[in-house]
Design goal:
Blueprint (H helix, E strand, L loop, with lengths): L22 H19 L3 H8 L3 H8 L7 H10 L6 H11 L20 H15 L2 E6 L10 H8 L7 H18 L2 E7 L10 H14 L5 E6 L1 H8 L4 E5 L10 E5 L4 E4 L2 H17 L3 H14 L4
Parallel strand pairs: 1-2, 2-3
Antiparallel strand pairs: 1-4, 4-5, 5-6
Helix pairs in contact: 1-5, 2-3, 2-4, 4-5, 6-8, 9-12
Pfam families: DUF5753 (PF19054), HTH_31 (PF13560)
InterPro entries: Cro/C1-type_HTH (IPR001387), DUF5753 (IPR043917), Lambda_DNA-bd_dom_sf (IPR010982)
Organism: Prauserella muralis
Length: 308
Amino acid sequence: MPGERSGDGSSREGLPVVVTPTHVVTSDWFAMRIRTLREASGLTPDQLAKAIGRSPQSVRHFEARNRPINTAYVEDSLGGLGHGHLIEPYTRIVDRSKQAPLWWLDAIPKLTKSQKPPALEQLELLVNFEASAASLRIYAPHCVPDLVQTPAYTAALREFGEPPLGPLQASLLPGRQGVLAQNEPDVHLLLDDAVLRRAVGGPAVLREQLAHLGSLAERHHVTVQVLPSAVAAQAAAEGNFTLLDLAEELEHDPGAVFVRTAADWVHFREPAKVGAYRARWAALLRDALTPADSLATIGHAARELPAI
């Protein structure tokens, strides 16, 4: 029998989710971590560069995430900052990240960072973070989130307008959805009640989608909750977001937030901004129906749909 999920959406059954972060995500984490350690030591990038025999530009490139991390820089920078005890565990993390499966490599155009349009860069980051996530908390006020959409529901949404990089997004979606089954991250979905009644694609398409949500909720690592219409209207004004947490071995990682806009995805990694979304998630969750009542509401919405 599935275990219970804690109030903040963390892993049910008390077992840690073991997911190997990708090299892109690991580089992003190390850039934040080494900058924090450097600033705590009171050194500037130029001073650290001088201490480890590297150019100031290379230090800035690593901290700005313009270069993927390598073990040589891990050793040099940590050693130069007096954190030699972190070299072995951090090197192990970096080495392991290079073995993480990257199912999307053949689908995403191979461009340099300077060549990538912003929408493509954000989409690639999203795919990397989803594949690296130990947990995902997803708030969807307007439609069922794409990670749990049925093909028919996705197709019906696209009739309202093709998103940026639409063909690429469509080709990536099955793989993104497959990560949920393969990695089994802790997934917590929070949907506004209106999402259950917005007949995207007509009754048959919505009925299938609602049945899929009910089926997903039976998985031990998935929770689905509904925000009642009485409180959802105000919450929806602030829009959707996905809050992701990474493996615990990435020490002091603040998590990441992705927000979908009409133009592309926007992501946040700054601790204060991620913290603001954590607070918002907690506030939304306080007003949500229980998982059991949410499933009953989903079933009721499906039964209310007109027969074909």
